Amino acid sequence: MDVLVPLPVAIPLISAAALTAFGHFLGKRVDDVVALAASTATMVVSLLLVFHASDHRLAYWFGGWRARHGLALGVSFTVDPVAAGFAALAATLMTASLVFSWRYFDEVGTLFHVLMLVFLAGMCGFALSGDLFNMFVWFELMGAAAYALTGYRVEERGPLQGAINFAVTNTLGAYCVLIGIALFYGRTGALNLAQIGDTLAGKKPDGLVVVAFALVTCGFLVKGAIVPFHFWLADAHAVAPTPVCVLFSGAMVELGLYGVARVYWTTLDGVPGAHSGRLTDLLLGLGVASAVVGAVMCFLQRHLKRLLAYSTISHAGLILIGIALLTPSAFAGSAAIVLAHGLLKGGLFLCVGIVLNRLSSVDELVLHGRGRALWPTGTLFVLAAVALAAPAPFGLFLGKSLLEESATHEGYPWLAPLVTVVTIVSVAAILRAAGRVFLGLGPRHDALLSPEPDEEQEVERDPRRSGVLMLAPTAALILAGVGLSLVPGLERHLEHAGDTFQDRHSYVATVLQGRIEHTAVDSLSMLKLAPASVVWSVISLGGAFALAAFALYRDRLVPERARRRAYGWTSGGLDVLRSVHSGVIGDYVAWLTFGVAALGGLLALILT
Amino acid sequence: MSYLPYALAVWIFVVGLYGIITSRNLIHLVVCLTLTQSSTYVLLLAIGYVKGATAPVFADVSVGTRAVDPVVQALTLTDIVVSVTVAALLLALAIQVQKRNGTLDPDALTEMSG
Questions:
Q1: Which CATH architecture best describes the domain B4-108?
Q2: For labelling alongside A255, which of A3, A216, A556, B66 has CA 20 to 30 A away?
Q3: Distance (Å) from the C-alpha of residue A82 to the closest C-alpha of chain B?
Q4: Secondary structure class of A394 (helix, strand, coil)
């Protein structure tokens, strides 16, 4: 089955090259068909790889340059279920967005399809690569395509600024990664992840290795939108074409976190002291900060795409929490959140795309009550929001329950209530927006929400256009996300994938010695409903509806004096939080510099 | 082994960052970004340097001749290609910003606040 391994990057790259060469001579529909076929083929191949890799890890050496005598010479793709799963998720979201784009844009050139395919290849390559420098190249390819897609509507002001902020911060992140790679190479003489880990194993880490790891981690966390590296994300999401946002939120951000996890478990796993609880505390702190900041900022937005973008930051924090706990079970929880969140958030963005297409706005207050006619979209939107609140046994429930159980088991019992509160706030924001737009609930003015500049249109409004091709992929993504937890045996398979992901010895054996290590997963078992998780899920769903209703009707529910006093207490803090998200690139880079210095210093204290 | 190249790499990186943070002109900002990047070239080449060795071209030299590490040079070349792409893209965006807003000052762009 080795022949399948390079296909998730080869198919989109070759199709992109062909479209660049011949696309201008063919019609738009031919471009659409080629891009869609390539993306679907990538999805099928990646899914096949998931099934093959669930039995044993695959190592594929480009050009047949296999490892000899335990020395890696060539560049390898190393496929385990998590890597292949990421490629499959990216390709699935890409397919849905391309189907959506079919009717969405009036005029979209061949270049849009080319960039989308290159973007897909970058994401798949990053997920599958087993070589640190090769990961950097895919990382940059994914980045360059993403910057260009963000600024695709280059004739408008917003996309220009969003794309510049996105490109500068992420490029600096990539340079941090590159310096880290250079230092790893300087210490170990290797670029292959297995080889680096094998060289470092068993020795106390010196300063160089710590700095290298810190820089690689910071660089990937920029892509992962973790506080204080998260600023670019909302800007990029607010201005990128909606089908592109699906990929940004659903796969690209999570790939940054995947990069951190992959590098940690392949290189530092065998290093003494790297498993200390203090490393967990540091990463947990970052995850919790992102989850909280993301949720609060999410609640303050009226621009629907910015609102969803901040909700993604909040979820990225939750995913990092699962990685930080350093256990296979918590990692499985993160993986489940990535899958369910990717599908649901993708669906939510497509819903916003339909609203923008039909009503020419994405402003919650402007759209007040105007979404009533779009009831199918509204129903899907609310369904996805509810599933994000993780009601047992749907949507994010599987991931959240694995995360909470693992946190309690590892001695962090406060994480479960915290995760619940964060979920309540971010889901309530989405429900509040849904109530205003699709049902016309609540007042037309809300002083709490950030002001928005006049927006520009992404697409021409054309009510004659059939909505089926836009509604179908939206519904498919959301229904898949809602029902994900019900797939028989998924929990067991994810835990197994977490075990495999964190097993450095079998990784090295497969890559460097060429040994195939079979591992079996027991047969299909149904989802277990832990009572504590069910209670938390009920609280988060009920709390989200209650908070959304409170946000809409607080004028009636609370007497004016109490409201003024509460406003006085909170407005100072919220204004500081808002002004920190200034939209100015210099500020973002200053935060990035501060983050790298602080994180590097703390890691040095922890690891040496 | 001299620490000078490593110190130089750190210095270039920090100077570039300072330039980006304080920049009032997008073209200047992109040049500073490219400058930051060039610190990685210095670092990579310093890592592969071997004292008294020749360039890694193995024609017309006797077997066993010491050569500097060709891997880091390949990495540097890839690195240049990647960053030129990004720099070109950013400069194109800067031109568009000048056309739309009549200014290149990043602080004057306020579409994204909040």
A1: Orthogonal Bundle (1.10)
A2: A3
A3: 27
A4: coil
